[in-house]
Write a structure and sequence with these properties.
This protein has 659 residues and is mainly α. Helices cover 74% and strands 0% of the residues.
Length: 659
């Protein structure tokens, strides 16, 4: 996760003088200590960087970049609570008119969203959009750089000091996306109209949002108008992009004939100009996919063949053509083609050679040659991975040997390999592998060698706890997996509550009490109470989960719907049919607000509610819901899934009337 901050860090160091600014030096020292497994020192260097940031004047050109870098370090280490605090304390130091607020508000929103608190994320996205809307051009600093565009390097700024319509569109789109995710269609529609009204803006953003909103006619109108305009202006670069957008829209709607037609028009418009080869190739690739999806495999194969013949030195084109040959049971021809390409092209990029080798591996595996396939796959991996700058510690081999020994019931060897991997993991390049593998081995060893299993568990958790001063993420993942592994074991039921509480405490410390990580602890409690057949306690924890999910995302969201559906099932386990029916009615209403087009879940929830009503003799409403489910099922891209259930409900009514 920490690799994601490298670009921001390098951008900052590019502006630093020699020697680097103290805050840059502290950030670099953190990176080095973290990578080398010196976690206490890494944590100290991170706190040093934060202290230096807090002492840095907010009008310093690099201030915004440093804020984001340090917040990203905390977030990458699994400390999103501290990441938010870092940005919020920096925001408090900025003037209300400082354009840097737009960027930092957006980042706070991201961190809340990552933790599953969508209502808090929405609050900051609304503020970011409002700030972007009212932002004025940024005055250049004395060294010719603006604090916003140059010290942070935000890619969506069009030019120095520019908050263009495209910049506002970025924030409007993110805001509209979240409104729609939360079921707030009116608010989302209002923002979409703002995007559509911005002059000079690529209308594909508004069109995509109209499509998501379910306004397909409006979406098609915008996609089509952009394509027609590009074709009329004979602008080949615009044609390629707009034609792809319209074709993808048709493809998503399964209008394959329309998609193929517009792609063929775009291919003809781009012509045979070598400068437009990439654009033409892209359109042809999409055309091949569309034809294949429509069932026209022969047409798709012809397009793949044309692409290959037109691009004999293109590794991607030959790979696609070879895959098509293999799919048509011409594996020998495909293999000969790929091997010939490798022989004739000795100057391929490593990633290109890796892709060809992987295609050869896939063909060999399909032909029943697993050993050769594995050899080719390893060669592909070696080609695709750049050599390390310095020798690395790798624990994957030890973990693999531990798994082999475990499968062969060589428990002492399995323990030895796993323990060695744990001991080496701190500085290992692949240390993220350690948690799940060792926990699974310890769980499997528990029966055969309880003492060795306990030793592995203690060694693993001691190691992860030593990392947690820097990065609590691996420990949190291990605690989550540990609960999962012991929850279903009757002889470990006494350990489960403490394991859940340990996970919950770690989750709250890293992500806050209002987070999806905290919700996971409640899900564990519900599952545990169900396992030990305590439906009342499970129902109480389910109510807590509903309350938490509502505080995170409101009552119209996928996760709240999941919790409501589970809550309805738990009412049945305590024989409270009245409350179960009411919960199912709410679930149906939520689903209708969430999903703009009919899908299986809308119908399935109706049918579940219909059965609950029928069991209580409320057949009129039951059959009404069943009829609605059938209507939804008729519009799905699959055989009618609800017919049998509807018949069963009708039979239940007939039986009840006979009584």
């Amino acid at each position: 996760m920490l690799r994601g901050i490298s670009c921001c860090l390098l951008a900052g160091l590019a502006f630093a003088q020699t020697p680097p600014a103290p805050i840059d030096a502290a950030i670099q020292a953190y990176q080095t200590a973290h990578q080398e497994g010196r976690f206490d020192e890494a944590a100290a260097r991170r706190e040093e960087a934060l202290g230096l940031l807090n002492a840095t004047p907010a009008d310093t050109p690099q201030f915004g970049m440093w804020v984001q870098t340090i917040a990203s370090i905390y977030a990458g280490a699994g400390r999103t609570e501290q990441a938010r605090t870092t940005i919020l304390s920096s925001l408090a130091r900025l003037s209300p008119s400082d354009v840097l607020r737009v960027v930092l508000l957006d980042r706070v929103s991201d961190f809340w969203y990552t933790d599953g608190n969508l209502l808090e994320a929405l609050k900051y996205r609304e503020q970011a959009a409002a700030a972007a809307e009212s932002a004025k051009p940024v005055a250049p600093s004395a060294n010719g750089n603006t604090r916003l565009a140059y010290s942070i390097g935000i890619s969506w700024l069009q030019s120095p000091g520019d908050f263009s319509p495209n910049t506002r569109t970025y924030h409007y789109q993110r805001l509209a996306d979240l409104y729609l995710e939360l079921g707030r269609r009116e608010a989302g529609a209002s923002i979409i109209e703002k995007i559509a009204a911005l002059s000079g803006v690529d209308q594909s953003t508004a069109a995509s949002l109209y499509e998501r909103e379910g306004r397909l006619d409006k979406a098609e109108e915008l996609f089509r108008s952009q394509t027609d305009r590009a074709l009329a202006q004979s602008d080949p670069y615009q044609i390629a992009g707009t034609v792809q957008n319209l074709a993808f829209f048709y493809q998503r709607q399964k209008r394959y004939t329309d998609a193929a037609a517009i792609l063929e028009k775009g291919i003809a418009a781009t012509g045979s100009d070598p400068k437009l080869r990439d654009q033409s190739n892209s359109l042809r690739q999409t055309l091949a996919t569309v034809l294949r999806q429509s069932g026209n495999s022969e047409g798709a194969a012809n397009v793949d063949r044309q692409l290959f013949l037109a691009n004999p030195d293109d590794s991607g084109a030959i790979g696609r053509y070879a895959n098509q040959l293999a799919a048509e049971h011409h594996a020998e021809q495909a293999e000969e083609l790929l091997n010939g390409f490798l022989t004739a092209h000795s100057n391929l990029q490593p990633w290109e050679e890796a892709n060809i080798l992987q295609s050869l591996s896939n063909i060999a595996r399909t032909n029943g040659q697993p050993q050769r396939a594995d050899e080719l796959a390893r060669a592909a991996q070696e080609k695709g991975s750049p050599p390390p700058a310095q020798p690395q510690i790798i624990i994957g081999e030890d973990l693999q040997q531990a798994n082999i020994a475990m499968n062969q019931r060589r428990f002492d060897d399995a323990f030895r390999f796993a323990a060695h991997a744990i001991a080496q993991s701190g500085r290992a390049a692949d240390r993220d592998q350690i948690t799940n593998t060792v926990l699974r081995l310890a769980s499997e060893l528990e029966t055969a060698s309880p003492e060795r299993s306990g030793q592995l568990m203690r060694q693993l958790f001691e190691t992860l706890e030593s990392w947690a001063v820097d990065s609590p993420g691996p420990l949190l993942n291990a605690l989550h997996t540990h609960v999962t592994l012991i929850a279903h074991k009757k002889d470990r039921s006494g350990d489960v509550p403490a394991a859940i509480e340990r996970f919950r405490s770690a989750a709250v410390a890293a992500h806050g009490a209002k987070s999806e990580a905290a919700a996971d602890a409640l899900r564990f409690r519900i599952a545990f109470e169900q396992t030990r057949e305590s439906p009342e306690q499970a129902l109480a924890s389910s109510k807590d989960l509903l309350d938490l999910e509502e505080s995170l995302s409101g009552p119209i969201h996928q996760r709240y719907l999941d919790a409501m559906e589970q809550h309805a099932q738990l009412y049945e386990s305590v024989h409270d049919r009245k409350s179960q029916i009411e919960a199912l009615r709410q679930a149906v209403s939520i689903a209708d607000k969430l999903y703009v087009s009919p899908n299986f879940r809308n119908g399935n929830l109706r049918m579940t509610a219909a059965f609950a009503l029928a069991r209580e003799g409320q057949f009129e409403e039951a059959e009404q819901l069943a009829s609605q489910a059938l209507a939804i099922g008729a519009r799905l891209d699959q055989p009618q899934p609800f017919q049998g259930q509807a018949e069963q409900i009708r039979k239940m009514r007939v039986t009840a009337q006979l009584k």
